[in-house]
Structures are given as structure tokens and as C-alpha cells.
Amino acid sequence: MKDVLVGIQEGLIDGGVEVVTNFPGFKSHVLFSKLGGKITSVNEKIAYEIAWGASYAGKRSAVMFKNVGLNDAADPFLNSHLVGVNAGLVVIVFDDVEVEGSQSRQDSRHYFDFFEGLWLEPDSVEQAYILAYHSFEWSEKFKLPVVIRVTNQLINASGTFTRMPSTIRKVSVTKKDRRQFLIHPTNASHQRQELAKKNKRIRDFVENLYESKVTRKNGRGAISFGRCARELNDFNKEDGDILRIFTYPIPERRVKEFAKGKEILTVFEQGDNFGEEKIRAALEKQETTSNTGIIPNQSGKYIISEHYEKLFRALKAVEPDIVIGDLGEYTQDTLESIDACLCFGSSLSVGAGALIGGAKKVFSITGDAAYLHSGKNVIPEILERKIPLKVIVICNSGSQGTGGQHIPGDLFYQPEPVEKYSVEYRKTGLNEFVGVLAKMSKSKSLSVLYVSM
Q1: What's the pLDDT tens digit per position in 238-271?
Q2: pLDDT one-digit tens code per residue, 373-384
Q3: Domains 2-207 and 303-452 share a fold
Q4: C-alpha separations of 240 from 263, 264, 277, 285, 360 in Å
């Protein structure tokens, strides 16, 4: 028996993957490692842009990150639907809808409604292999990125599959076509027209991926999206018909055929009722009920960290007005030190905003991965605005929460006006910490303390 990550890995390999990129989060980095990935990108946006660039130059490319990471990559992701691709580009989005390792429950499928395209959601290890195998071929067929959605239930699946012959297709460097590949208002109309044609072809294409089966028409039916094993387990006991959907767009003709004679039609899916809304639109007047999957309470698995207690005790001693945090092991500590956290890499920007908003003494705490991901980008503006923000960077040699992946970038460089301090956590006593933080508190300029763990 093999897990689904092996299925996707070997499907992509047999399908001819040549370039892989990643920013770590919710198992995406595990797949990246299985595919031989070595260098983690600075953030998801850069990971996507590198993968698209490789596709443009003729290499079959795959980029992977979790659902929240797609938010960071949204600009190039959406634009790539308008300009298209050359060699196949596959996007594997890990949707942590059960909030096992993410800050909130988000359903990435809503991005489909912007420009559509082709999304795939397997319901088994075997199907994950098959869809990953064909994903580059289909991407090149429609000249669009293909998305594979992986949910919590799918990650926990196991099964078998039969490998198919490797398909390494030589895709030449694309001919320069400014109307296609140059995103610009002068090309907008042409690109939208071309996208509409591609989406029409995709809608016709997906209809042929589903077998037309005669249903029992016993008045009860279920439509499932992706893997819904827990939910369907109860349904199967009642012996109803099941239509398993694994594509977006949905196969509307097959759905209408299946729904005939069904008095009760239940839609099972992981995340929001996104799929049910598509079913309702296709069936118009027919009633459906929605079951959007079990959402286990995973909060008990999260550890309230004690690793940074000495630092947080020192911080409380200097009595800051506000402490802004980033997402990391330090976000929740035993002393409840952090007052607010918006998103990964945001603590410096939010801290600057708090000072602009009238707060007097603001500390922003971030980790090295969050700082390099996007946190440091606001520093030129902080200097321009002359904002006296106090920053603490916890340096633990990478993305500690996902296994310590090295994030490229110069962690310690600061422009000349920035006051820099550094301490080693284990060698620094509480009183020394208090002294450094007190000195920072009195500063009227941007100051940064690096804490090496």
C-alpha cells in the first residue's frame, strides 16, 4: 500500500516533470522533497513565478504549496490563466480544510471562479497517480496551468496503482508571441477571448472523462467531490447511487443524467459548499442538500510553546503598548504575550500601522522564515516614514514549523539607519534581555534584535 503523496510524486515523474518549486506548508514540502526538490523558494509568489518561467522556456514544471499559500501566489496564478503556458504547468494545492496546520479554514476552489481553467480533485491514491500523470499533457493541450487539489482526507488515504510508461515530451522554447505572453491592457481583450475559447474546450473535454452509467433511480443519490470516505461510509449503508466528481468544471451533462429521478440528492465535499453551488446551477430547480465534510477540532494538537519564555518575560518587563506577532511556534506562548497576528510575514507591516494609528511603544516579533518570506519588504517604507518600530527576529535556521527548510536571503542585512542588536538565547540571562529591550524601547528609530536560538 502506498500513500497519496507517493501516487502524486510518481504520477508527476512518469508524466515528465522537470522543474519543481515550493514554499513549505501542510505536507507540500514533503511532496517537494519526494520529487527531489532542494532549494525552497523565498515565498509562494516567487515559487509560482519560477515555475511559470520554466514552463515558458519549455520545461514541464510543478509548484506546490498549501491553500493559504495560493493567496500569496494569486497574482501570477490568475495572470497565468490569461497569458497561458508553454510546457505543462501543474499547481498542487494542499487544502488544509480541517485546520491541522493552518491559521484558518480556507477553500482554494473559490479561485476557480475567477478564470476557471482545469482543476482536478482525486478521490483515491490510484486516481491521484492517474490525474498527476496526465496533468502535464492536459496543461499543454489547453495551454493553461492545471491545478490538483489535495485535502486532509486524501492525504490520509492509502492504496495501490499501476505505473504507466514515462512520457518525456520535448517542448521547444516558445516562439515570441507578445499578444499571448505579455500581460498588458493592450492585450487584455485578446487574452480574455482566447481564455473563453480554452474554457469552452475544457468544459467539453471533462464530459468525456466520466462514464455514462445507468443508475437505479431509487429516489436517493449522492454526488461527491474528491475524497469523502468518512461521509460516504454512512451513505453507502443506505444503498444509494453515487456520482464521484473529480474535475472543475463539473460534467454538467453527466450530472443532469445522474439526477433524473432522484428525490433526495446529497452533495459531499471537503471545505465550503462550492461544489453544491455548481450542482444547483446545473440542475436549476432540483433540490439538493449539502454535507461539507467533518471538521475535526484540531486545536488540542497545537502546542503552547515554552521555548521562548525567557524572551517573553523580558518583553513584558519593558511594558510595550502592543506586541504584534507572526505565524510560528512562538505565536501562542504560555505568557500570552502577543496581542495580534494577521498573517504570515505581516508583523512588521502591522506594527508600523499600529504606530501610525497612535500606539506609542510597539514590538513586532517574527521568525526568520516569515521575515525573509515578506516581512522585511516593509523596512524601506518604515525608514521613509521614520517609524520607531521595535523588531525581534527569532533566528532558528529556517522554517522550523515545517522541518527547518532553509529560506534564501540575507537575514542580517539592514540599511545604515537601522539599530541592530543580537543575542544568543541560551547564553543570555533574563536581566540582559531586559536591558537590551529597554534600550530598544528608548530608541526613536527602527531597531532590530536578532535572537539566535
Answers
A1: 667 889 999 999 999 999 999 888 888 899 999 9
A2: 888 999 999 999
A3: yes
A4: 11, 10, 21, 21, 64
* CATH architecture of the domain covering 220-291: 3-Layer(aba) Sandwich (3.40)
CATH class of 303-452: alpha beta
How is the chain split among helix, strand and coil, in percent rounded to 5? 40, 20, 40
Burial zone of 74 (CB within 10 Å; 0-12 exposed, 13-18 middle, 19+ buried): middle
Please state, for a pLDDT cut of 70, what percent of the chain lies above it: 92
pTM for this one? Answer: 0.88
pLDDT band at 24 (very low <50, low <70, confident <90, very high): very high
Beta bridge partners of 364: 324, 391
Name the grid cell of 145: 496551468
Q: How far is CA 82 from CA 111, 189, 210, 213, 355, in A?
A: 14, 10, 28, 36, 40
Pick the CATH number of 2-207 from 3.40.50.970, 3.40.50.1820, 3.40.50.1260, 2.60.120.200: 3.40.50.970
